[in-house]
Every structure is written in C-alpha cells, then in structure tokens.
Amino acid sequence: MSQLPATLTPTSSAEEKISQGITAEVPWGCLIPNRLGLQKVDLYDEEITFGRSLDCTVRAQEKFITKGRISYISMLHFIVNIKANRFPVIRDVSRNGTWVNGILVGKEKEVILQDGDKISVGMKNYTIFLFKQMIQQKDVPDEVLKKFVILETLGHGAFGKVNLAFLKRGCRPRAIKKLVKGKVSSNKNDTRKIKNEIKILSSLSHVSYSILSFLACSFKFFLTQPNIVSMMEFFENDEAFFIVLEYMDGGTLHDRILRRDCMSEKEAKLIFYQIIRAVKYLHDNEITHRDLKPANILLNSDNVETVVKVSDFGLSKVTENDTLLLTACGTPHFVAPEVWVYQYRGIPYTKKVDIWSTGVILYYMLSTKLPFVPEQSDNLQMLRNLIIRGKYSTNGPIWETISNDGKSILEKMLTVSPNSRADAEQIEKHSWLHNDVEMKEKVVALISDQELDGSIEQPCKRTLDDSIEQPYKRTRRIV
C-alpha cells in the first residue's frame, strides 16, 4: 500500500483485518450449489479449481450432473481465487465456456465475482453455483456495487472516506471518494464544496454534467489534461456523493517529501514542471485551484521519475480572466499573502494565489522545509505576518547545491505583490524549465508510456441518453 496523504488517517484495525481478505477462521466466500449432490464450498484457500479432473479442488462427478451435461464440463473448467488477497476472481480455462450471470467470461479471461453472482458451465443457462461473498457493503449505492468491487479504505477524514475499488470487468483500479452530504467540517467540505468539486472535475474530465440540475449554470467542457486527475464517473444517493477517480498508486507528494531526506534538484524539477503545466491549463480555462499543496499532488508510482497529477478541486473557483476572488481559502502555510490580506481587510485576489502556492511547494521539495514557519508553530497570526512580509531564506548547505536558476524561479513565484509575481506561462518559460530539454522530453515519455500500458485512461464521455444501461431510480449517475 502507498502511504496515506497527510489529510487522511489510517484505517482502523477492524478495517485492516477485513481488507486482508483471507483469515484462518473466516472464509472469504463460498460457492452455494445449484444442483443436487454438489456440496457447499467454503473458500478459505487462495485458490480453488473446478472440473472433472481428480486433481480439482471441486470435482464434477457424473452422478451429480444432469445426464448428458458432464461432457460440457472440461477436466479443468474454471479457477476461483482471491486476487492479491483483495478481491475474488473467476478465470475460465475451459473449451466449452463459463458464464457469470449469463455473460460469457471467455477462455483465459477473468472477471471479478460479486455477492450473488451465478456461475454457469457448458451452457449459458446451466447454473451450478451461486457465489456468496462474506463481507457486505452496506453504505454504497447498488449501482456502484453493480460495476465496482469496493476494497480497503485508503483513508478517511471529516469529508468522508476514499476507498480502493476495481472495475468488475477489466479489473482496473479506481479511487472512490465518498463525500457525505451536509457534513460541514473545519475544512468546509459541505455540500456546496462537494458540488463545486464535481463541477470542476466534470469540466476537466469531459464527463456529462447536465444531470446536476442543482448546478443550474452553463459550463464549458475542456479536454483532459494528463497532469490533472480525471473523474471517471459520478454517483449520488440521498446520503452522499460518490466520485470515481483514476487511482494513483504512488501516494502524494507530501508522502514522498516526508520519506526523503532531501529531493535532488533534478527530481524536483521533473515533478514541478508537471505541476505548473497543470496550473497553466487550469488558469487558461479560468479555473483557480486555491488549495495547492503537496497533499493534493498525486504520484502515479513510487519511481523517482513518474507522472504527477493535481487533485482535490473542492475549493476551486471558476472565473473569467483577471476576475477577483472573494473568499479566504487554502491551507495556511501554502496560502498567498493577498489571501491573508483579504481575510483581514476584504481586499480581493486573483488566480496568482496558485503561483505563490506552487512556489511554496517547490521550496518544500528542494529543502524539505517550509519557507514560512513561525516560532510558535500553531500561531496563525505569526504565520500570517511572515507570509505577508515574504521573507524566506535560501541559505545553508542544501541551498548551496541549488542552481541560480532554481533560486530565481522561486523568487519569481514567492513575490508578495501579485502584480509583480509571475504568471503560470512565465514560470513555464523560465530558463530553469525552458532550457532543460531532456527533462521535458522525459515528461512526455512518461505520459506516453502510461498511455501505452493503459495507466492513463480517457474518462467515459457517454451521456445518459447514449447509455444502453439505465441507472437505478434511487441513484443518479453521470456517465
């Protein structure tokens, strides 16, 4: 498992036991026979096999099979196992076919089993087992469970929780973010913020947004940007919103910084270049993130060189060019001076608050320290004063290893006056980034490699009118 973001807390011991899947005392599932003579099979082992062979865990014997049907069952017909101790999978290895709920699995292919699935062999309607899953999901809409297997909790907080999930067909990983309605927290993750995040992600992921009648405004759709996390689907019931996001296995930038004594300038530059590309894309499309911080930067893998994506748009704001923003948002250490000024004097600010935040992120990557830290760590007034003055240090052994260009780009971003502060385009064209052709080619290659191996997927672009499958009435869905 990747490390948890700083904003999330570890799962409880009970959840950990559930997510481990196999235990000596409790089966992870069972096969309930649909034919007389077949026995119930409790699934304790990682794998069971079914067929006519004496070597099979569960053997199909002629006296228990309908006359003439035994020839339809292969010596080794199907295998059921618990995939990586996480979720149950059935694999068809027969010549005559295995069906799950009337759908052919396909030779040497596999699908995830869900509670209540009917397993047929030889013929579509010849059901021999009903799969029973021991762990039930009670707080997730039926429509979500129809499509996904929900696994362990990656983390949780005041807003709700994030679970690892896999598509039943194709076994692709997803992160499902459950946001409980009406649950106001210190981070203001209330229904209004949730709807705003869905709106932003819908636009960025090219997911149909029209069904959200409560968001009665027109909103342009943009193409997917490879450094912004994609929302694949959205579900809603009376209790909560469920946002299905692409899964990033490398954890957060916050995790990586904490695990490292120091990040090299080369490594930091490759990550930062991807962040500023995402920020420029947002700003070009009149979106201000307003809560950029390492915990909201996701990594695709634990590799030193990896694809990076910006996430968590709950505090983002859609604006017109140069529109002034009128609310105080963000995480204190990464908040721009003008946001603090707004909080006390009501003076509005612009999208350049994101540039300041990216500057703080870069400083943090290069030094593993924050540029503005008061002597009393919990004193917000002292922190505010430090940020408004904009005084930070690039002295010390670590900074002696950083190039002049690296320090220069920091200065362009950590400028107190937003009018004098560089914008995203100017930062992207700064010599520290612009002249490093090798680094930029590496980023293109990393993204290209992910597209080739399927790690980067396009969100579903169908609307409900185009969908063959209509959603259940008790939930609403955007696909």
TrEMBL record:
Coiled-coil stretches noted in the UniProt entry, renumbered to this chain: none
InterPro entries reported in the protein's UniProt record: FHA_dom (IPR000253), Kinase-like_dom_sf (IPR011009), Prot_kinase_dom (IPR000719), Protein_kinase_ATP_BS (IPR017441), Ser/Thr_kinase_AS (IPR008271), SMAD_FHA_dom_sf (IPR008984)
Keyword Nucleotide-binding among record annotations: yes
UniProt KW Lipid biosynthesis keyword: no
Domain of life: Eukaryota
Signal peptide: none
Keywords: ATP-binding, Kinase, Nucleotide-binding, Serine/threonine-protein kinase, Transferase
GO MF assignments: ATP binding; protein serine/threonine kinase activity
Pfam family, any one: Pkinase
SUPFAM superfamilies, per database record: Protein kinase-like (PK-like) (SSF56112), SMAD/FHA domain (SSF49879)
Domain (FHA) ranges: 48-105
Domain Protein kinase: 148-433
Protein family: Belongs to the protein kinase superfamily.
The protein's name: Ovarian-specific serine/threonine-protein kinase Lok-like isoform X1
Natural source organism: Agrilus planipennis (Emerald ash borer)
Lineage: Eukaryota, Metazoa, Ecdysozoa, Arthropoda, Hexapoda
Gene: LOC108732626
